[in-house]
Amino acid sequence: MTSTGQPPPSQQDPGSELVLPLAHDATAPSMARHAARGFLAGSGLNADAVYDALLVISEMATNAVEHALPPVTLHVQPVQNDGHPAVRIAVTDGGPADEPGKWAATGSTEEHGRGCTIVEALTARNGSNSTEESTSYWATMES
Q1: Does residue 56 contact residue 119 with C-beta atoms inside 8 Å?
Q2: Confidence at 111, pLDDT banded by 50, 70, 90
Q3: Is the sign of the CA dihedral 82, 53, 9, 5 positive or negative?
Q4: Cα-flanking dihedrals φ and ψ of residue 33, to 5°?
Q5: Residue 45 burial (CB < 10 Å; 0-12/13-18/19+)?
Q6: Residue range 82-110: average pLDDT?
């Protein structure tokens, strides 16, 4: 991730936040994408940004399942950055796991290890916040 700490302040658009508890298993990325698709479509992002946001959500959910403890929760919130529509995506988990998940432990390096690079490439800002009980990885997507 490119930075740690709180994301830069931005003014939230009126509207709701999507908060979705995710299963701590291989269904989490698909469940997150399915739930976020309609929410993102109404956020003001253009179609390309919605597609990129769904990829970021999938990567963040996968990382939480493979490398962290439950619970895992997706948060998607419309925001404004310099007057332009944007969304803040966060995936919160129970902190680092002692052992990687099954897929990460058994897959070859060609099959995994690109999630953070993808998130960095597609987002305006990203980072993480940690407490004793949880870790939250966040990213801001713009149109």
Answers
A1: yes
A2: low
A3: negative
A4: -60, -45
A5: buried
A6: 78
Question: What DSSP letter does each residue of 60-86 carry, written as one string?
Answer: HHHHHHHHBPSPEEEEEEEEEETTEEE
Q: Residue 143: what pLDDT?
A: 84
Instruction: Let me know the angle formed at the C-alpha of 123 by 56 and 121, rounded to the nearest 5 degrees.
Output: 85
- DSSP H or E segment with residue 117: helix 115-122
Contact by Cβ (8 Å): 55, 29: no
User: 63 pLDDT exceeds 70?
Assistant: yes
| Per-residue pLDDT at 107 exceeds 60 | no
* SS3 call for 53: helix
DSSP result, 17-43: -EEEEE-SSTTHHHHHHHHHHHHHHTT
Phi, psi of 74 (to 5 degrees): -95, 135
- Between 39 and 81, residue with greater pLDDT: 39
pLDDT class of 116 with cuts at 50, 70, 90: confident
